[in-house]
Amino acid sequence: MAEKQSYAVTIIATALVAVAGEAFLPGSAAWITATQGVAIASLSYLYTGKILSTNAAIAILPTFFAETAGSSIFLFVKSFLPPTGIIDVAAAGVSVIITLAILATVNNILSDGAQLEQKELLSSKFRTYHKQAKEVIKNLALTDISNLPAISTIVTKFLGSY
């Protein structure tokens, strides 16, 4: 499975750059959720060789959202507000942290050969990755998050160290 890690990093880094930009769009919650769902389906295909439907990928997301209820509500409410700048930057940071934690969790579970349907395992791993993602992302500038090569390096280090 280690040979698939570079592909996983690319999937995760691309999703992070996408959600950082999507946080500035009206209705961002829908865009961000769709990006997360597609990235989960892509990681699943990478590790299992089977197509995970977008509906199945999105069905996994409530497990993660339950762990980050406050942040998830903030992103949902913010998606109905007109662009303001300051709130959008905060939303970009929150969406990148949550997405990194979700995709690192999915990557870890699938690379270990486990199943995504194991909700307790998802929740446990997510809590650990979410805590670590907050530490990693809080020190980044928005320009770092929107730079694919820079974020790829960060994702590689993040996945390798936790």
What do these coordinates show?
This protein has 162 residues and is an all-alpha fold. The protein is built from 8 helices and no strands. It has helices at 5-22, 28-48, 54-67, 69-78, 86-111, 119-137, 142-145, 148-161. Helix 2 (28-48) runs parallel beside helix 5 (86-111).
Short description:
The protein has helices at residues 5-22, 28-48, 54-67, 69-78, 86-111, 119-137, 142-145, 148-161.
Q: Number of helix segments?
A: 8
Helix content: over 70%
Q: Count the strands?
A: 0
**Overall pLDDT:** 85
How many angstroms does the end-to-end distance come to?
16 Å
Helices and strands, in order, run as HHHHHHHH
Strand content: under 5%
Structural class: mainly alpha
Rg for CA atoms: 15 Å
Low-pLDDT sequence parts: none
Main sheet summary: none
Silhouette: globular
